[in-house]
Amino acid sequence: MFHDSEILLYTILYLLICGCIVYPPVEFTSSGLTISAIFSSFLKSENEHFVLYHIKQSVITLFIYSLLPLGYVTGLWFFNYSEEIISLWTFDKSLLWQLFTNSCFIFPLLALYQIKTWSDDNWKNHPIAVNLSRFCNNNGTWLSVASDINVEFRRVDKISIQTNAVSRVIATENWILKVTPLTIFVAHQSDATLNACHTDTHTMSAENFGHVQYVTIEVKSARDNVPPFKIRVNTADFRDLQDRLARPITITPDILVHKSLMDKFVDTFREVVQDNPVYSTEEELDNCIGCMQKTANVKLQKVCTDNTGDNACVTCYCRPMWCMECMAKWFASRQDNERPDTWLSSKCTCPMCRATFCVLDVCMVES
């Protein structure tokens, strides 16, 4: 038989477990203790069928959420507390307890009914299908919109940002998607407006360089029946999202978006490279293989006078394949995160041939 203190301890532990299921911490995610990881064999590949994957995931998530109250009562029974559980239905207990214990069985039934409603007519009534159907043209169905999104999600030029433990923002060539456990908010870039409506800054440890800022962006569609939604991203991801979007993000004068450490380094890197010698070529330049957005515009060629030592700069024979921003980000990614003051004076290796170079060896391409 449990004592009151044991019941309280069990309740606290169960609430913590529920919190980890609903909003999994990093430790649970890295250990594969999430709904998507546990049911991966049923969900299959997100990359192959993105929309169907999230429809199935939402169904599993809804049903598991509905089982959480029943799991609490089952746990009490498992720990030999059956007499007290039976007494929960008697009239000498509070109405709150009676409502809770009856809800333990009602919630799963309601969830199953909701899932049945969603699945009718090939998932036509599912929230994801409803959101996609708002973009149908020429009497098409939501399946045609889903097919377009599936195709664009498979491409390597998309950007996916994990905004928190249960939410993601995905930007493809034509779509802006906010993925949540139970639905996907959708906007087409051709008729969407994006406004940075709020920022919040949080003080962090010295290892995180003082602070971190988040930007809340409101996404509105010009279509009357498409509800607006908000996304919240770190300023470190803000620039990457901005580069992927075909529509500009409007920043009102009262909103101050701080530059991330990476943005500051890219600006400084660009200033130094612009003073370096220019590399002339007549060959046709392809898109940067890093971002696939801009034309490759830098070439690594030995210009500095560093000729001694095991880590001396050497000649790189690779053709121009990177843009300035991607080369700067690659350079910074190979440096010591705890010593940003040494980044500019440090060295790096070519992403392709691993030839050692410094900032003085990065030259703008002139064609």
From TrEMBL:
GO terms for molecular function: ubiquitin protein ligase activity. The keyword Transmembrane helix applies. The keyword Transmembrane applies. Keywords: Membrane, Transmembrane, Transmembrane helix. Its main location: membrane. One of its GO terms (biological process) is protein ubiquitination. It is a multi-pass membrane protein. The chain crosses the membrane at residues 12-39, 59-79, 95-115. GO terms for cellular component: endoplasmic reticulum; membrane. It is found in: Membrane. It comes from the Eukaryota. Belongs to the TMEM129 family. This is Uncharacterized protein. The lineage of its organism: Eukaryota, Metazoa, Ecdysozoa, Arthropoda, Hexapoda.
